[in-house]
Specification:
Elements (H helix, E strand, L loop, with lengths): L2 H13 L25 E4 L5 E6 L5 E8 L12 H8 L9 H10 L3 E5 L2 E7 L3 H13 L5 H19 L2 H14 L11 H5 L3 H11 L5 E7 L3 H10 L25 E6 L5 E10 L8 H12 L5 H9 L3 E9 L5 E10 L3 H17 L4 H18 L3 H13 L10 H7 L2 H11 L6 E6 L1 H8 L9 E3 L5 E2 L13 H12 L2 H5 L3 E10 L2 E10 L3 E8 L2 E9 L2 E6 L4 E4 L5 H8 L13 E10 L2 E9 L5 E7 L5 E10 L2 E15 L2 E11 L2 E12 L11
Parallel strand pairs: 2-6, 7-11, 7-12
Antiparallel strand pairs: 1-2, 3-5, 3-6, 4-5, 8-10, 8-11, 9-10, 12-13, 14-15, 14-26, 15-16, 16-17, 17-18, 18-19, 20-21, 21-22, 22-23, 23-24, 24-25, 25-26
Helix pairs in contact: 2-8, 10-13, 10-16, 11-12, 12-16
């Protein structure tokens, strides 16, 4: 069941539109415009809820947003319960079931969503009383049910599965672990185990502890009058929202590494590396350092005209894009520079990243760079003021972060006052090239040797996709005499043995999946000795088909009018994808295999066997050490969007006519994860040769 899932990638390519690389050209510098922040009125209810009202009578709509200003929370072995609590705030109340609640919101054409730190709601102004009633009901009377928690946990687990196959997500996760440590709220990681341990009591405890009005900031923006809003709130059910003491939490600040450390997350078969260079940065929101630091980052890597982009993409061609960011936070922020680079130039890319980080620290930026960055920030700020919600957002920020009352009124003056020396000083403070974590998510066999020279610690450290430190298992640590051929032979035996496989004259597998809300059906057929057929159907209409017969094959996409022969140099690749058990064809097709080591796959040890085709494409197959069955494959393929790593997890093997077939295949490529379930397997039914006509 292999070609089917490569086709899922092709399907997205056919029906999607590639994102174009666009440049953001900053506007020409000019005098700072006069700041008109707009007016707002604020008041505090008896329960401590702070309310900010911004009138805007251009259109008859109103929006509300609530922010609960609490300290970060360390969730421990229940990591994920806070997110679950936020999602469950919208799953029914004591007086309305979820369906009844959804129907009431839809009836007035409103939007209402909750998170663990507040809500967002909007409707026509005439429906504000009803919207407020519904919001208050969800806020004050949530009913947490086990069936809804089970759904939320399933969603969290699906999200975890996607993250494990996304190199950029993995790099971000490991970055947080390294910068903050797993005993810090910003560094701890949600896992399958922590999600499974979440209970209704955990959700209820979070709600009882932190949904308090006295830590809340409510913004009301739109076609309303402040006096009417105040009157409406005082009469609404929100008056029954009781204040309470909320625990204040403090954490020790993690330390930067004494010297630069290199960390690798091994992704066998990856032909590019997700690269990140990061260090902690003590930058508070709204501090005097905030604006010059933002200008510094804009010049360094904040846009597609910045230094990192122009160096690594335009000058050297190492990547599609290279960027940087500086995050401010009341506890501790961070600096990070990142990009996806080809394996062959991973070390060269690190050199250029470090060159740019050192250059912005060692020499002042040019006057033109500074003018362009100021113009960009000025334009962004001015455009933001066109949205009335921005006024409320600024007012709330001023209160939350104890900013000067005129902070935003003087914002552009502060931007204009920044000098090249200020920018250099911020770079020297917040970027530490000699105390960085260099994080590389890619094929360790290709990149480890290239990155060793940058590590000043005790050697490269290895982490897994969950952010856990692991030992890299080399081929030398494998059992004596074990080879790739032995593992493949054991796989054949685990499937049912050569005798049973030889009896396999033809097979038809039908399966289904949902992709982006669309139901897809798959038909895969194979007939000995050399006939293969795979089709993807949408509503019984074929979207894509591959047919192989002997030494020829064709690919079709009827919906797009595409029909072409498979080139001879690509036939083996297509054949491996189309075959039911393509791995068993390696020897026949002359594909080289190598046993790379032992890795942990979903908590169990598995042998990693790498296969390299003559065209250079590499696939890593993982075979469960105990059962011998194939449990995972990873390969990289070229698409219009660049190189995409595709991962398949094979689960739920069931025996049919003496042979074991996987009945669940989870396929991930880019941000997409598709779970395909087998509906039927038919063996030796006498498939007609007409199916395989070219």
């Amino acid at each position: 069941m292999r070609k089917t899932y490569s086709f899922l990638l092709l399907l997205l390519v056919f029906v999607g539109t590639a994102k174009a690389q666009t440049r953001q050209t900053p506007p020409e510098p000019g005098p700072a415009p006069k700041i008109e922040l707009g007016k707002y009125e604020s008041f505090t209810l008896k329960n401590g809820l702070k309310v900010y009202v911004v009138e805007n009578h251009k259109v008859p709509v109103v929006s509300m947003s609530l922010v609960l200003d609490r300290d970060p929370i360390l969730e421990g072995d229940k990591a994920g319960y806070i997110s679950a609590a936020g999602q469950m705030m919208r799953t029914g109340t004591k007086s309305r079931s979820k369906d009844q609640f959804d129907e009431a919101v839809d009836f007035i054409g409103a939007d209402l969503s909750f998170s663990s730190t507040g809500f967002s709601a909007s409707s026509l102004t005439k429906h504000l009383p009803t919207l407020l009633d519904l919001t208050a009901d969800a806020l004050l009377n949530p009913e947490f049910k086990q069936e809804e928690l089970d759904k939320v946990k399933k969603q969290l687990l699906a999200s975890l599965a996607q993250e494990k196959e996304n190199p950029d997500a993995i790099a971000r996760k490991v970055r947080q672990v390294l910068l903050f440590g797993k005993d810090h709220p910003y560094g701890e990681q949600m896992t399958e185990q922590t999600v499974e341990s979440i209970t209704l009591a955990d959700v209820q405890h979070y709600y009882n502890s932190y949904f308090k009005p006295n830590i809340g900031y409510l913004a009301v923006v739109g076609d309303v009058k402040a006096k009417e809003v105040k009157k409406l709130l005082k009469k609404s059910a929100l008056k029954n929202w009781k204040k309470g003491e909320v625990q204040q939490l403090t954490y020790k600040l993690p330390q930067k590494p004494a010297q630069t450390e290199v960390v690798i997350v091994d992704r066998p078969s990856a032909v590019q590396t997700s690269l990140a260079l990061a260090n902690a940065a003590e930058l508070k929101p709204g501090s005097p350092e905030s604006i010059p630091t933002q200008l510094m980052n804009n010049i360094l890597g904040g846009a597609s005209t910045a230094r990192l982009f122009m160096n690594l993409r335009e000058k050297h061609g190492y990547t599609y894009g290279a960027y940087s960011t500086v995050s401010s936070d009341r506890l501790l922020g961070y600096f990070a520079a990142s990009g996806n680079v080809r394996n062959a130039v991973t070390d060269s890319a690190v050199v250029e990243f470090r060159n740019e980080l050192s250059r912005i620290r060692s020499e002042p930026v040019t006057e033109q760079e500074l003018k362009d960055a100021k113009a960009y920030m000025t334009g962004s700020f001015a455009r933001g003021l066109e949205n009335p919600s921005t006024v409320a957002f600024y007012a709330i920020n001023t209160a939350r972060y104890n900013l000067p009352k005129d902070y935003y009124a003087n914002y552009l003056k502060m931007v204009e006052a920044v000098t090249a020396d200020d920018v250099q000083r911020m770079a020297q403070k917040h970027i530490t090239p000699d105390q960085l974590y260099i994080i590389a998510v890619g094929n360790a066999s290709d990149i480890a040797g290239k990155l060793e020279k940058f590590d000043k610690n005790e050697g490269i450290a290895y982490y897994n996709a969950s952010g856990d430190k692991v030992e890299r298992t080399s081929a030398a640590a494998l059992p004596a005499g074990l080879t790739a051929q032995t593992v493949l032979a054991n796989y054949e035996k685990a499937l049912g043995g050569k005798a049973n496989l030889d009896k396999l004259k033809d097979v038809t597998i039908k399966s289904s999946a949902t992709m982006q809300g669309t139901q897809l059906e798959f038909v895969q057929q194979q007939k000995s000795p050399d006939k293969y057929y795979v089709a993807i159907l949408m509503g019984n209409n074929p979207m894509q088909k591959v047919t192989i017969s002997g030494s020829k094959g064709k690919v079709e996409a009827p919906a797009q009018g595409v029909k072409q022969e498979i080139p001879a140099d690509q036939l083996n690749t297509q054949l491996l994808e189309a075959a039911i058990f393509g791995v068993l064809l390696y020897d026949k097709l002359g594909i080289k295999t190598e046993l790379k080591g032992i890795e942990n796959i979903d908590g169990k040890e598995a042998y990693a066997v790498e296969a390299q085709q003559p065209n250079g494409q590499r696939t890593t197959n993982y075979f469960d050490k105990e059962t011998g069955l194939l449990v995972k494959t990873i390969n990289s393929m070229q698409s219009p969007q660049g190189v995409i790593t595709q991962t398949r997890n094979y689960k739920n093997y069931k025996e049919v006519n003496g042979i074991k077939f996987p009945h669940i295949v989870e396929t991930s490529f880019g941000p997409q994860t598709i779970k395909t379930e087998v509906q039927s397997v038919e063996v030796n039914k006498g498939i007609s040769d007409d199916v395989f006509k070219l």
